[in-house]
Amino acid sequence: MPNRWILSLLALATGLPPAGCASSRLLERPRGTLVAANNATGRASDASRATPPPSAANRLQQPRHGARAKAPPNSQRYVIYRARLTLAVFKRSEALSRARAVAKRLGGYMTVLTERSITLRVPSSRLDAALSALGKLGELLRRDIRGQDVTEQYLDLEIRLKNARAVRVRLLALLAKAKGVKDSVLIERELARVTEQIERLEGRLDYLKKNVAYSTVTVELAHKRSARARALRRRLPFRWVREVGVDSLLRAY
Q: pTM for the whole thing?
């Protein structure tokens, strides 16, 4: 089987340009759009935060090479939510433990813990419940919620992955019919490239699925003085008295 003929078959099977171009275009990703947020405003419904269905690509036509997937009107949106709360508390260690317990109770988990903050991952469908419970751990000073719409990117990756898998099937069929070592080497080289692209697409899609399914909540804790400590602080006659460490003793109250 002549090399020129096998190369033509590879081009027909893959529908892709040479390796350098195909790799970059196949993995091209549109940027998400920032959609919402700040303080206690605008909560999205549970439906918009639900875990994506197994395959939204079945509802779309296969795009031309280089085209980006477009979300059909009134379709489910895929949104990544990140929230940040700032609370004033008397005892940080106790508040951190309670915050971790809230996440565990709602099916989430902790990812980062410091002396003054904790970062949690909670199911997106339970985000409102998590924010409500966490907000009761102390005096709420600030609440910020942001959402990144990745619907177009998600659907685009699904369709690119579907196309790449179809290419791999055609390459395997060509490999089974190949005659001669040179032909087999050419097909196997292309097969390895397409397989690598599939793995990258699967990894990116899996990343989006996990971040849509679980929202990130960061809780920052500020120290809150008791009324007695504030009154004693106001009665200190001289500024230098505060600077020698009396203020830190008052925090115990």
A: 0.64
